[in-house]
Amino acid sequence: MDRIAALYEAFTSRDIDAVLTHFAPDVDWPDAMRGTRVVGADAVRAYWLGQWEVVDLEVTPRRVRELPDGRVEVLVEQVVRDSDGDLLSHAFVLHTYTLDAAGVRRMDVGDPEDQAPL
After folding, report:
1. Phi, psi of 77 (to 5 degrees)
2. pLDDT digits 0-9 by tens, 65-89
């Protein structure tokens, strides 16, 4: 779980190089704003650098747990502001990570309300 904490810390500080050290070279990442996906560390780099020019995204992990299938689920509080600092959204979302020795292989975003209670 330390890898996940370090990933969020790097993201919060907008250190894209540190973020990418946690990813497998062929990471599969969601582009939630467009409803598509980007694949590969270079594509994720371009995605986040572009996003940070348009919005200020703050994600704070509130719960981290390992799922029975080995994936890691993180409940995050997400605050999105435009470039002027105006609030666009404030919500809780699920980030679900597929990990291996190379790092994050895939990340999925979900709505906690859609999840069955455990």
Report:
1. -90, 125
2. 999 999 999 999 999 999 999 999 9
CATH topology of domain 2-114: Nuclear Transport Factor 2; Chain: A, (3.10.450)
What's the pTM? 0.89
Give the span between the Cα atoms of 45 and 23, in whole angstroms: 11
Closest C-alpha among 27, 31, 26 to residue 109 = 31
Domain boundaries, the chain: 2-114
